[in-house]
Amino acid sequence: MTEKPGITPWEVSNELKETDYDRIANEFGAKLIDGQMISRIKKIAGEVHPFLTHRIFFSHRDLDIALDSYEKGNKFYLYTGRGPSGEMHLGHLLPFVFTKWLQDRFDVDLIVQITDDEKYLFRDVNERDLEKYTKQNILDILSVGFRPEKTHVLVDTHHSGLLYNQAIKVSKHITASSVKAVFGFSDSDNIGKYFFTSMQSVPAFIMSVLKGRNVRCMIPYAIDQDPHFKLSRDVLPKLGYYKPSSIISKFIPSLKGGGKMSSSDRTTGIYLDDDPKTVRRKLMKYAFSGGRDTAEEQRKYGANPDIDFAFNVYRMLEPDIGKTSRVYEDYRSGKMLSGEMKGLAADMINEFLARIQSQREIVEKDYDSYMFDPSKLQ
Amino acid sequence: MTEKPGITPWEVSNELKETDYDRIANEFGAKLIDGQMISRIKKIAGEVHPFLTHRIFFSHRDLDIALDSYEKGNKFYLYTGRGPSGEMHLGHLLPFVFTKWLQDRFDVDLIVQITDDEKYLFRDVNERDLEKYTKQNILDILSVGFRPEKTHVLVDTHHSGLLYNQAIKVSKHITASSVKAVFGFSDSDNIGKYFFTSMQSVPAFIMSVLKGRNVRCMIPYAIDQDPHFKLSRDVLPKLGYYKPSSIISKFIPSLKGGGKMSSSDRTTGIYLDDDPKTVRRKLMKYAFSGGRDTAEEQRKYGANPDIDFAFNVYRMLEPDIGKTSRVYEDYRSGKMLSGEMKGLAADMINEFLARIQSQREIVEKDYDSYMFDPSKLQ
After folding, report:
1. Least crowded by CB within 10 Å, which of A17, B144, B289, B319?
2. Considering only residues 98 to 127 of chain A, which have any Cβ-Cβ distance to chain B shorter than 8 Å?
3. Smallest Cβ distance to A161: which of B160, B171, B189?
4. Whole domain around residue A61: which residue ranges?
């Protein structure tokens, strides 16, 4: 029996510490994004995003190669995705904010893969719910503001013809041993699960297939997806395509603390349709705090902002790094109380959600035009 | 380690004796087609086909249930298939002759699945050859004379959208253990192979999906395909569909004797484009004979027609059972020599091939109209 790996897309430890991430990235063979890399991105992008500064996206594979190539005039395309198993909350959506930034700054195409087949195979869900969440999640994702003409949504069961024909090519190079080792499967897992990673590989080279020339792909993803793309990186060169580059994030902390927000309990996350009052109430009531038990202690000893949900979300949404530093300092020193920190975060979140909610109405009208359509690619 | 099963779709013993078939059918849990069943088919069909009389199609699963239902006015549909790994020879085509007879006599729809994905996953073939053989094989199969309006060709990579979305439902109910046990896979086999049986299951219930009501399916196949459909029969009821019925054949003997004709060596089979001279020459030169070494011995001791290639093919193509019995007796008794038997078979085969070759030109013009099209089903 193989030992189960610590992080797979379907089994995630809820108690990852900051230091664990560097260790895991290292074990996975990914590189850390260092100051030099951040400077390089800043030079090309014209600015740097808080997700990089704060090391939310902290690791990468061959990002340097993608940037080398980009600087020579060869654009990569972005590929990211979502398994539509339930409603999206803030933690699910925030990584897409960074992806949008990448799309805007690098002026590139984006494929968003919705793995409804995966959710069907790995979870106890019915088809009707899957369809509902698929549509809902796509609208939520698009509401982040991706560019309509450069954004292509691939839904596995809608685009299964296109995907399966390429997926079998990937699958021919992956043994049952590999998926057992990488995902921790056993003989009692179903054969759809065994095959699935092949479907998730396809968007990493589909542009090359359709354009008839090799195009680089860059994949922003959370670290639990790394096993998939490690396999993709092994297989794609065998099919004549580039290894995809990647930019890898930590988990977005959940409202109640811990590694990954759950979508089964509505009090563990801030939902995208929560109104401002609900957001404020959830933060006040449930948000995991790095502050002290009493205002007096807080004034005296200060908080630990690093583990504080409100601060963590605040820093992701605040583009002004100087401002974030001041908040960090005030909170850490005890000048700012937990309630104030939560209030600040609530304002930030509510402003963000208001944008999402108004944008959602616009993208809903154009929903179909975002669907991946090979005939529309140049 | 699980012990490898004796017959799987990809590993076939070449030395099966007549008695082995009954044993294998029994081990697989299939029933033998007895005289009573043949009478029943004759009653409904109005005649009986030599493939039944001579026990080429010798076994079944739930054929009685399909006939019960048919007699109450509920038609089944037929489903059969072919993996397009090379040119088709006579041995490949003959089972389709029986399927055509079933289609005509029962007046039913037929799905022909071309599993090009399977051949890609299991063999070392390139895409161009696969495409070539796919088209060629389809034309060969259609040349048997299937009814255009009731015949639907499903090509896995052309219809992959339709198939994959249903295949994942099947795959959710099949574990890696099962496919290891049934097909003899190991951990070093690729994950495409693991998944593939799900794709082969789909045509057994796709009519029910598309028509929105349960329709029975009857599958004529050679016994090496039984592991696939045994799994289908386990899974389909879990998805709310009928278990498929089946009618199971032995292997068509190869020119040189043995269980299954190979498509890699052109001298092991009679090809569909062989001209009459070539057919005669191949029979005379290569055909495995049940006759004696010399004419003198043959006159004295007689032949063993049961293992004789020429006789075996002759009896499949000769509709008149009485005639076949006389030939059998003459050959067995020594009244007829090997050369005469081969000459008789050559005439029969050449007549059959002439029909196929002329029919092929007609179906080639209507090729597209045979393709499976959900919108055309009533």
Report:
1. A17
2. 117, 120-121
3. B160
4. 18-256
Residue type for position B84: P
Q: What is the residue-wise DSSP string for B183-235?
A: H---TTSBHHHHHHHHHHHGGGTHHHHHHTS---EEEEEEGGGHHHHHHHHHH
Output the CA–CA distances (angstroms, integers) from residue A345 to A232, A249, A349, B333, in the order listed: 38, 21, 6, 99
Residue ending a domain, choose from B256, B289, B307: B256
- Under 8 Å CB pairs connecting chains A and B tally to 116
Q: Which residues of B touch A192 (CB under 8 A)?
A: 167-168, 171-172, 195, 198
| pTM for the model | 0.93
Statement to judge: residues A303 and A222 lie in one domain: no
Question: Which residues, other chains included, contact A280 with Cβ-Cβ below 8 Å and sequence gap of 6+?
Answer: A342, A343, A346, A350
Residues B252 and B271 occupy one common structural domain: no
Domain count along chain B: 2
Of B242, B194, B251, whose CA–CA distance to B61 is shortest?
Answer: B242
Residue B135 tokens read as 């088209």
Shortest Cα distance, chain A CAs vs residue B164, angstroms: 6
Q: Is residue A376 part of a domain?
A: no
Put simply, the answer to whether A164 touches B163 (Cβ < 8 Å) is yes
Indicate whether B358 and B310 sit together in one domain. Answer: yes
Q: Does B195 touch chain A (CB under 8 A)?
A: yes
pLDDT in tens, chain B (378 residues): 333 346 777 765 556 677 788 888 888 889 999 999 999 999 999 999 999 999 999 999 999 999 999 999 999 999 999 999 899 999 999 999 999 999 999 999 999 999 999 999 999 998 899 999 999 999 999 999 999 999 999 999 999 999 999 999 999 999 999 999 999 999 999 999 999 999 999 999 999 999 999 999 999 999 999 999 999 999 999 999 999 999 999 988 778 775 555 555 677 789 999 999 999 999 999 999 999 999 999 999 999 999 999 999 999 999 999 999 999 999 999 999 999 999 999 999 999 999 999 999 999 999 999 999 999 876
Which of B121, B157, B165 has its CB closest to that of A165? B157
Q: How far is B158 from chain A (nearest CA, A)?
A: 7
